Amino acid sequence: MLKVKIVNKSNWPDPFYATEASAGMDLRANIKEPIVIHPLERVLVPTGIFIELPVGYEAQVRPRSGLATKKGITVINSPGTVDADFRGELRTSLVNLSSEPFELVPGERIAQMVVARHERVEWEDVEVLSETDRGAGGWGSTGSK
Questions:
Q1: Please, how many CA atoms are within 13 Å of residue 123, restricted to the half-sphere of its CB?
Q2: E-assigned strands of the chain?
Q3: How many CA atoms, within 13 angstroms, populate the side-chain half-sphere of residue 90?
């Protein structure tokens, strides 16, 4: 198990895995009063959480499927990336994609965070790339079904 340092200045428990097989941990809105997010409005919501990831890891902040499907509330820069050298408060950029105002209440679960290993690349300049069956085919090039 990966050990990650956390400072929790919120009014809520540390993020945790809801089930044994969960990949993400819910982040909560650390706000004092409800916030109304109007249709197509964007807000930056504090969580009160500060973390220290080991080098070679990132935290990805993703939408919660229920909130997105039922209310149209999603993370606008999904997935948001938290780098290992960031020490600021985790804040989540939410957008209301529905046609109705949404009231965000203190402690509401607003996003999920997945901690993942990543690799750094070293570019190798070449003149030609290897051939594949797909080649340069882009969006929709592998078919629709």
A1: 3
A2: 5-8, 25-28, 35-37, 42-46, 49-52, 57-62, 73-75, 80-82, 91-96, 102-104, 109-117
A3: 34
Angstrom CA distances, 52 to 49, 56, 63, 86, 104, stand at: 10, 12, 22, 7, 27
pLDDT (tens digit per residue) in 45-77: 999 999 999 999 999 999 999 999 999 999 999
Residue with tokens 């540390």: 14
In the chain, count of helices (H) and strands (E)? Answer: 1, 11
Tokens 């209301």 belong to 96
C-beta separation of 102 from 72 below 8 A: yes
